[in-house]
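Hello Y.,

Per our agreement to keep a running log of every chain we model this quarter, I'm adding this entry. I've kept the format consistent with earlier entries: sequence first, then predicted structure.
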Amino acid sequence: MTYEYLLLDIEENVATVTINRPPVNPLNTQVFKELSEVFAKLDDNDEVRAVILTGSGEKAFVAGADINEMAGLDLVGINKMNKVSRAVFSQIENATKPVIAALNGMALGGGFELALACDLRISSEKAKFAFPEVGLGIIPGGGGTQRLQKIVGQGVAKELLYFGEMFDAAKALELHIVNEVVPVDEVLSTAKEWAKKLASKPPVALQMLKLAVNTGSNTDIESGLIIESACFGNAFSTEDRKEGLNAFVEKRKPVYAGR
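Predicted structure for the entry above:
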């Protein structure tokens, strides 16, 4: 399937989704629709075991939502767009495959929210980050106020959200917003290295890990432990568990079938 604003490449069990609206790849209703469609298809594709999400060019991963589209919307229209964006970000956050954001450039506003919805983030050393919405008389509406504070804590989140100032990749690494910072020309290759490592691991176990972490983060410790126990049982019941344990005993590399 071809997309108007997305590029899709699948190689060695890794899917790379590129948002292609140069020069800064803004998010509009059509991009949200296509992201929803492609992630639904990738979830159903057993050959895909890890996903990379990036932007075209080196200037921006995603420099926010499409202001031109937003400016022409009334309250009903913006609420509809906001509902779509939140649904897509949650879909990516809860995808059955691990999702790595390859941050090739600026991640601002909605682009920052999109990055936070991914499991892992590899950043260019030249990338910039900000939630500038307050300066426009609005606030983040795609989950930024919630996902950011879970990573950096409420106090730091309020500082970043209230002032809306731009900060660099080194600061993002210091705050644990990104997992690694690399030179510009190594962002995608590093993301692919990480994705290939994840693709070699047992898919069901990874899915259960993601489910346990994501779901457990939204509940109390006792409920989280119950969720973890259920996910542990699901992983333990797979053929991949038998393969993993047998390979360990036999001192060989495991080959996981995904079941």
